């Protein structure tokens, strides 16, 4: 049976997932840069210079690819040769003119990875190219308005769709790690486009059971170090005929859909995802000791969450780093007050003439109420921004699919369902089941790596070589598992609070 490898080259680590023709995950591995490549002296995979200049050593990535492939060989042994295709995902001129002049090819991380595997330059993938501000996202070609001939020569050919066959794996990997010399290397995309590509591939009857039951869209929420909300769009929202943009038009990023030629996608990104949740969790655990397990810290967090109710009169905002939307930093609390006093310096008007007192706190002032306030705040922000981008939550959204490590967090999953007033789902692999015969939940695996593995299987099945020689029936089978349904009273409470929440968040942004 043919095997397929998906690779996710991200900021802090490189991850690989091997699946078979049914989509079953046979093996996954990762290389943590800080721990396994200490000679590069990175922190969280990065080197920060001059206060705010962040870089990652490219040679570190090259070494990490080698270590990942060694781990695959060590685990799979001779079965490494059964890997038939590899897919994946990944996450100067004005300042250094001489460097720019000496640059032969400009690559994104997502084109750098297949370039290493091919041993030659790989083209840039169209969805990841959308974020360069050099692509005409309607024609899907490099823009002649922004690119002169010199820049075009450095960018290479026009961008390609995700999962296109680019060539065969370089002999270096064949000889050193035992890969098949006819192993295909496919075009790769960014981590967020990879996420939506995998979830949207579930709409195909070839890959799923009962994913799409209507014409409503599927919204994917990825819970990681940063949180993201992604959903497809059938129409490009901007044109010369459009009215002048409003402030809400600047929320989120529009990019070309990585695998569907006539669609786009919208990405809402939040820097302070698990980064902020883990900070609050650590503070409430009263311990930053490395000897206390993460599970123990989160069990303590759940206990506090369940034993500390909050009212509709309390709101918190947690921006450890300056957030993207809204552009705010710091930790802020708001509490409704009945009477103003002369000591109340920062008073904010809410809905219906209500007044809120605003205070800014530091990390050491985090209390038990912040357990509920941070989850409430993060999910309400997601819903607010979805509505500001024109989504009618209950009529436009068919399903909410939750991925990422925090998709196993019962508290967060229930809050998402309650705030959006929509059932939430995770992803199961039907070919692998637990002791009760239920499909294994794969939502916490790297979705970009899964997208890469699935794109590799499709690439292989479509190739001319495989069309004549393939003997495997490549039919990965995934389904959605219902995780949580909304609790009616909770949904009503969040709905009643949204107007105040919106006004308070806008007030914060006006201060920065």
UniProtKB/TrEMBL annotation:
Superkingdom of the source species: Eukaryota
Keywords: Kinase, Transferase
Keyword Transferase assigned: yes
Keyword Transmembrane tagged: no
GO terms (BP aspect): xylulose metabolic process
Cellular component, GO, one term: cytosol
Domain Carbohydrate kinase FGGY N-terminal: 92-192
GO molecular-function terms, A-Z: D-xylulokinase activity
Family membership: Belongs to the FGGY kinase family.
Name of the protein in question: Xylulose kinase
Higher taxonomy: Eukaryota, Fungi, Fungi incertae sedis, Zoopagomycota, Kickxellomycotina
């Amino acid at each position: 049976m043919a095997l397929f490898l998906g690779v996710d080259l991200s900021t802090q680590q490189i991850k690989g997932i091997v699946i078979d023709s049914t989509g079953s995950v046979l093996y996954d591995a990762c290389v943590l840069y800080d721990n396994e490549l200490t000679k590069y002296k990175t922190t969280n995979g990065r080197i920060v210079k001059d206060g705010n200049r962040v870089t990652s050593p490219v040679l570190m990535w090259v070494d990490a690819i080698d270590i990942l492939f060694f781990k695959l060989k060590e685990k799979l042994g001779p079965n490494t040769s059964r890997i038939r295709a590899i897919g994946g995902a990944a996450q100067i001129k004005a300042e250094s003119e001489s460097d720019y002049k000496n640059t032969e090819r400009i690559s994104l991380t997502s084109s750098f990875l297949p370039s290493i595997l091919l041993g030659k330059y790989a083209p840039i993938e169209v969805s990841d190219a959308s974020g360069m501000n050099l692509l005409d996202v309607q024609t899907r070609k490099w823009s002649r308005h922004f690119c002169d001939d010199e820049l075009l020569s450095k960018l290479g050919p026009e961008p390609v769709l995700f999962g296109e066959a680019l060539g065969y794996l370089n002999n270096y990997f064949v000889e050193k790690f035992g890969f098949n010399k006819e192993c295909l290397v496919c075009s790769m995309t960014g981590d967020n486009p990879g996420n939506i590509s995998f979830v949207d591939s579930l709409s195909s009857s070839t890959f799923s059971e009962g994913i799409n039951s209507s014409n409503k869209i599927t919204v994917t929420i990825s819970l990681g170090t940063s949180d993201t909300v992604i959903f497809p769009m059938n129409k490009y929202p901007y044109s010369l005929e459009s009215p002048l943009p409003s402030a809400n038009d600047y929320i989120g990023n529009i990019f070309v859909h990585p695998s569907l030629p006539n669609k786009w996608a919208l990405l809402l990104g939040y820097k302070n995802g698990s980064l902020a949740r883990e900070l609050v969790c650590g503070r409430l655990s009263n311990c930053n000791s490395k000897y206390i397990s993460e599970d123990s810290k989160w069990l303590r967090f759940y206990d506090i969450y369940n034993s500390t109710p909050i009212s509709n009169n309390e709101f918190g905002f947690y921006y450890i780093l300056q957030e993207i939307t809204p552009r705010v930093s710091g930790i802020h609390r708001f509490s409704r007050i009945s009477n103003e006093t002369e000591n109340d310096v920062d008073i904010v008007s809410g809905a219906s003439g209500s007044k809120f007192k605003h205070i800014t706190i530091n990390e050491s002032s985090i209390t038990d109420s912040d357990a509920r306030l941070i989850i409430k705040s993060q999910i309400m922000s997601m819903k607010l921004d979805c509505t500001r981008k024109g989504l009618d939550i209950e009529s436009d959204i068919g399903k909410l699919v939750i991925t990422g490590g925090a998709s196993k967090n019962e508290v967060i999953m229930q809050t998402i369902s309650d705030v959006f007033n929509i059932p939430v789902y995770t992803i199961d692999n039907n070919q692998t089941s637990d002791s009760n015969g239920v499909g294994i939940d794969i939502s916490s695996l790297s979705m970009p790596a899964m997208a890469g593995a699935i794109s590799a299987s499709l690439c292989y099945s479509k190739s001319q070589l495989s069309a004549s020689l393939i003997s495997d029936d490549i039919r990965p089978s995934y389904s959605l598992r219902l995780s949580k349904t909304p609790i009616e009273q909770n949904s009503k409470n969040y709905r009643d609070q949204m107007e105040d929440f919106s006004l308070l968040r806008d007030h914060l942004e006006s201060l920065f």
